[in-house]
Design goal:
It is found in: Cell membrane. The protein is mainly α. The chain is 76% helix and 1% strand. Strands 1-2 form a two-stranded antiparallel sheet.
């Protein structure tokens, strides 16, 4: 092969290599663009649902919070500035006290009972056979309708109901669970905790399954007792699951109002069970004050957001201290 032929072959080989390199460099962005388009195609239905049923209603509620509207004609939305907020936060308003106070007490009580109960139940299930069956049993109240749960517990709370019947057999006088202003709110909070404990049990049992058993074996070799093992090993390693349970349960407790509607009469007796979500419902659908209801919703949103941030901060602070 002559020198000119060799130079020609080298040039052709170099051109082919350059072409292949160019094609590969061009093919990578094309593949990435295709993956990106596929990802957006799969995300579009969820994003559309999120925009239509969450973002748009939230934006509309934010507009109504600074306006007055009777709920029928969109052309009659009148901007009033901070009037709605000044009205619901004024000293003469019942929104701060007792409504917001009832809401916080209701959420704290329900979350505390549900979380403690879920930890105990999850710990017991983790030691039993047929764990899937027991998890399903405790999850049943979650899939039941709130109306059915509220009516069943309402009958159980009656003066001639099951609970008072058992108390009477023990020599205790009947208790007005839903008629006594001092007991009505805790009584409904018990039902809220009972109805929501199933989700917490599922999450906490999954968290317990994720704990390495070698920690417990080492603790047993060191002679640690059951309670100290629970405090020193189970709770710290269960912190992520507990954080998720506390946040979701607290948000659900602050937003709960269906049980109030079913089990009480307009948040009674004497407004003792009236909570923020129920008051919003009444202002909007009963009195037609959509601006007032939206302002209450914005205030409740800020409270939920701040409480969630505080919970995350406390959890992160605890994680840093124990690390």
């Amino acid at each position: 092969m002559s020198g000119s032929e060799q130079q020609t072959m080298v040039a052709l080989t170099g051109a082919r290599a350059g072409t292949e390199t160019t094609q590969r460099s061009r093919g990578l962005p094309i593949a990435l663009r295709r993956e990106r388009r596929a990802a957006w195609a799969f995300l579009t239905p969820a994003l559309a649902f999120f925009a239509v049923f969450l973002v748009l209603p939230f934006g509309f509620a934010a507009v109504l919070a600074f306006s007055t509207w009777t709920g029928f004609d969109l052309s009659r939305i009148d901007f009033t500035g901070l009037h709605n907020f000044a009205e619901i936060l004024s000293p003469r308003s019942t929104f701060v006290a007792p409504i917001l106070v009832n809401t916080l007490l209701f959420a704290i009580g329900a979350v505390a009972m549900a979380t403690v109960g879920a930890i105990i139940v999850a710990g017991c299930i983790d030691r039993l056979r047929f764990q899937g069956f027991w998890r399903a049993v405790y999850f049943l109240p979650v899939v039941a309708t709130v109306v059915a749960i509220g009516n069943v517990w309402k009958m159980m709370y009656q003066p001639a109901g099951l609970i008072n019947g058992l108390l009477n057999r023990l020599g205790v006088n009947s208790i007005g669970f839903l008629s006594d202003p001092d007991i009505a709110l805790p009584s409904v909070a018990v039902v809220q905790a009972w109805a929501s404990i199933g989700t917490a049990v599922l999450i906490l049992t999954a968290g317990l399954k994720g704990i390495d058993q070698t920690y417990y074996e080492a603790a047993a070799l060191d002679g640690a007792g059951t309670f100290s093992t629970f405090l020193q090993i189970t709770l710290p390693l269960l912190r992520p699951s507990l954080l998720f349970v506390l946040i979701t349960q607290f948000i659900g407790g602050l937003q709960s109002f269906a049980l109030i509607i079913v089990m009480t009469t307009d948040g009674g007796p004497i407004n003792s069970t009236n909570v923020a979500a129920f008051e919003m419902y009444q202002q909007a659908f009963k009195f037609g004050a959509w601006g007032t209801a939206s302002a209450m919703a914005m205030v409740l949103f800020v409270i939920i957001f701040v409480i969630t941030l505080i919970q995350l901060w406390i959890a992160r602070l605890g994680g840093e201290e124990t690390s």
